Amino acid sequence: MSVPASPYVTVLPRAHPFLSYQGTPTPAYELDSDGIPVITTSGLTKVYRSRGREVTALDGVDLHVREGEVYGVIGQSGAGKSSLIRCVNLLERPTAGTVTVAGQDLTALAGRGPRAGKELREARSRIGMVFQHFNLLSSRTVQDNVELPLEILGKSGKERSRKALELLDLVGLADKAKAYPAQLSGGQKQRVGIARALAGDPKVLLSDEATSALDPETTRSILQLLRDLNRQLGLTVLLITHEMDVVKSICDSAALMENGRIVESGTVSELLATPGSELATALFPVGGEATGADRTVVDVTFHGEAATQPVISQLSRTYNIDISILGAAIDTVGGLQVGRMRIELPGRYEDNVVPVGFLREQGLQIDVVGEDLLVKEGAK
User: Which of 5, 83, 224, 379 has the maximal Cβ count within 10 Å?
Assistant: First the structure.
């Protein structure tokens, strides 16, 4: 099953390319229903060959990331996530398929040789990348690490220094410019990595498990920083992760990868409204089995204001039925409260068509569990 992501967002003009990091996100873009995604992969395939063996890491991946959104790719180890993100900026050459970033076909720039040509290097300079293990040079100061991409681009010493200090201020490390990586915490090292990734004024930021080596509190601060940069600078962020909390915290859209393929994708709100969605179930797991053959188990998904309404108690009073709550989960996704609840109603499904219809009329998504096919009675 694949739910297509909504196409495109328009980035609004901003007064200055670098905004001071305030800690509170300021929206800098609005959704647009028309246009072309800023990152597109089509039929992307990567096969590794070693000692006569072939391992297919990516198997015909089609990905569409809108401009200005945070897009999360989630999956278990070995699903192909890292190969995907490294193929997006052609650190890994795809075996087949195409990669287009900001309207430019990067695979067409790759050429046949093992080294990247001038055009591909220039295209890469507009794509920032944040690594899991920071990849900082221990012999360089924090400022010198941030300046490194600018050195490669041939910028003057004065320009490098000015830009690096602006970026360090942006990520909240203005006072660490002369420190060395060994003197920093893990979260501070990752902030340096983010500042370095922004040195080339990228329109796209790739994040390769950027928070997996950090403790929970530091993870939250780094995710908030990424979201703030996304909103303040209009950055498009493509991140890979194996943590569902990352998707819940900052992602506008998400894709689930298994065995080198994307098996599910869409905006987070679309996925939560999709019956049988694996991602929705993983984001908000609820458990519980029917206590008898003559019972109906229903998963109810609440969105926005409905998440705070006493719908279940209204149902019980209106139809004078006893309702058992088998499990529940509620959280904030994209600034909106979302909840899921698994309830049990007395009687078989055909006896509960009217109560289920009542829930549907409240604008809730209803999935009836235990039928031969998952029955969706969601809002239409």
Answer: 83
- 158-210 pLDDT, tens digit per residue, is 999 999 999 999 999 999 999 999 999 999 999 999 999 999 899 999 999 88
Q: How far is CA 364 from CA 10, 280, 305, 324, in A?
A: 31, 15, 11, 18
- Average pLDDT of the segment spanning 348-373: 82
Residue 252, token pair as written in the block: 């506008």
Q: How far apart are the first and last CA of the chain?
A: 20
Count the helix, strand and coil residues of the chain and give each as a percent rounded to the nearest 5.
Answer: 35, 30, 40
pLDDT average, residue stretch 230-247: 90
d(CA 228, CA 236): 12
Burial 125-162 (b: 16+ CB within 10 A, else e): bebbbbbbebebeeeebbbbbbbbbbeeeebeeeebbe
Give the Cβ contact number of residue 304 at 10 Å: 12
Question: Most distant CA pair in the chain: distance in Å?
Answer: 77
Positive or negative torsion for Cα 102, 197, 87, 220: negative
For 215, phi then psi, to 5°, come to: -75, 165
User: 111 is written with which tokens?
Assistant: 């050429």
Q: What percent of the chain has pLDDT over 70?
A: 85
175 touches 191 (CB < 8 A): no
CA distances from 139 to 28, 136, 380 (A): 37, 9, 61
Whether the predicted pLDDT of 89 surpasses 80: yes
Per-residue model confidence (pLDDT) at position 21: 32
DSSP 43-104: EEEEEEEETTEEEEEEEEEEEEE-TT-EEEEE--TTSSHHHHHHHHTTSS--SEEEEEETTE
Tokens of 7: 């196409």
